[in-house]
């Protein structure tokens, strides 16, 4: 396993995918993770989750970083790009196979769908290749052996969650048939390598957390504290995302964007609109309270609590 970075106190991170410009939902995640780190005199890192190069939009990584800079975010260290860390992920996959925690799988999606039961996240892998790849097939992906053990997590915003991975998800993929390493594996390896102690991110990733915790146990890696923020949705309840080309954050109006995200997270607003970015950050960091964030999985992005009073 790769060596862990030396950990000196609180370390948080923001890990966007470069599939479009920074939008409101991503700004909420960036702001929450940044304020939680800085309010505790901690470090904050930025990591580009660009493993799947087929989904990457050219120039979006640079655009996201420029938007963050224009709003006054200051990160520690160098930007990490997952596309440059494939050797570390391959090493982890090999270790898991050798330790008999993972196995090759020769199933196509169509094969799985014919035999699978379905859960909240789609087809539950029925274990076709658990005892070896059937004759006539070759191992195309790699899956992790799972058990009926209940994996429990105490989330700092959403409360207690648990999952029986084998029954609710099945043995899950850590290296895809196209050769790309899966998000679940890469994020675990990178959080440990960077010494991340707290993961503050959107609640759309809440159901992934037990799988990541399970991998941390198998790989003998530390588990960070988790806090999942409500996801910003439109009036129809659809998550705001780059995939649907939702309006990106306007970097030319940084204070307005930051105030909207801050209000969305139910934080105490300043008595009047800050005149500068420095003024916003001074207020926001000193008044940040994770306990004030609603324990909801999603909130309409149209919520603009009391912002008119700041005009």
Question: How many separate domains make up the residues?
Answer: 2
- Write down how many β-strands occur, each being a DSSP E stretch of 2 or more residues: 14
What level of helicity do the residues show?
A: 25-40%
- The side-by-side strand order for the widest beta sheet comes to 1-2-3
CATH class of the largest domain: Alpha Beta
- Helical region count? 9
Evaluate the radius of gyration.
20 Å
Query: Would you list the SSEs in sequence order as H and E?
Result: EHEHEHEHEEEEEHEHEHEEHHE
Can you offer a commentary on this structure?
There is one protein chain. This protein has about 300 residues and is of the alpha/beta class. The chain has 2 domains: about 10-85 and about 185-310, HUPs (Rossmann fold, 3-Layer(aba) Sandwich), CATH 3.40.50.620; about 85-185, Glutamyl-tRNA Synthetase, Domain 3 (Glutamyl-tRNA Synthetase, domain 3, Alpha-Beta Complex), CATH 3.90.800.10. It contains 9 helices and 14 strands. The protein has helices at about 25-40, 60-70, 85-100, 110-115, 165-170, 185-195, 210-220, 255-265, 275-285; strands at about 10-15, 45-50, 80, 100-105, 115-120, 120-125, 140-145, 150-155, 160-165, 175, 200, 225-230, 230-235, 300. The strands form 6 sheets. A 3-stranded parallel sheet has the order 1-2-3, covered by helices on one side. Helix 1 packs across helix 8 (about 255-265) and helix 6 crosses helix 7. The protein starts with 10 loop residues before the first strand and ends in an 11-residue tail after the last strand.
């Amino acid at each position: 396993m790769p060596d862990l970075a030396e950990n000196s106190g609180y370390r948080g991170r923001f890990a966007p995918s470069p599939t479009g410009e920074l939008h409101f939902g991503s700004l909420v995640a960036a702001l929450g993770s940044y304020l939680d780190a800085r309010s505790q005199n901690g470090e904050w890192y930025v990591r580009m989750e660009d493993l799947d190069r087929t989904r990457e939009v050219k120039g979006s990584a640079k655009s996201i970083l420029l938007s963050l800079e224009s709003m006054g975010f200051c990160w520690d260290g160098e930007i990490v790009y997952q596309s440059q860390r494939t050797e570390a992920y391959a090493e982890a996959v090999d270790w898991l196979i050798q330790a008999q925690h993972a196995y090759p799988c020769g199933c196509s999606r169509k094969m799985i769908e014919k035999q699978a039961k379905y859960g909240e996240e789609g087809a539950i892998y029925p274990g076709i290749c658990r005892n070896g790849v059937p004759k006539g097939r070759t191992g195309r992906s790699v899956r992790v052996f799972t058990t009926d053990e209940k994996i429990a997590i105490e989330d700092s915003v959403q409360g207690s969650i648990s999952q029986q991975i084998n029954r609710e998800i099945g043995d899950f993929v850590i290296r895809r048939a196209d050769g790309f390493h899966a998000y679940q594996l890469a994020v675990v390896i990178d959080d440990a390598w960077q010494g991340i102690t707290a993961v503050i991110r959107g609640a759309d990733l809440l159901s992934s957390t037990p799988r990541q915790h399970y991998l941390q146990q198998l790989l003998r890696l530390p588990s960070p504290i988790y806090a999942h923020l409500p996801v910003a949705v439109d009036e129809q309840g659809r998550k705001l995302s780059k995939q649907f080309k939702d309006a990106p954050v306007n970097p030319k109006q940084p204070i307005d964007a930051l105030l909207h995200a801050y209000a969305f997270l139910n934080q105490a607003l300043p008595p009047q609109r800050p005149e500068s970015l420095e003024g916003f950050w001074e207020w926001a960091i000193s008044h940040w309270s994770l306990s004030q964030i609603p324990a909801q999985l999603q909130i309409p992005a149209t919520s603009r609590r009391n912002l008119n009073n700041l005009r």
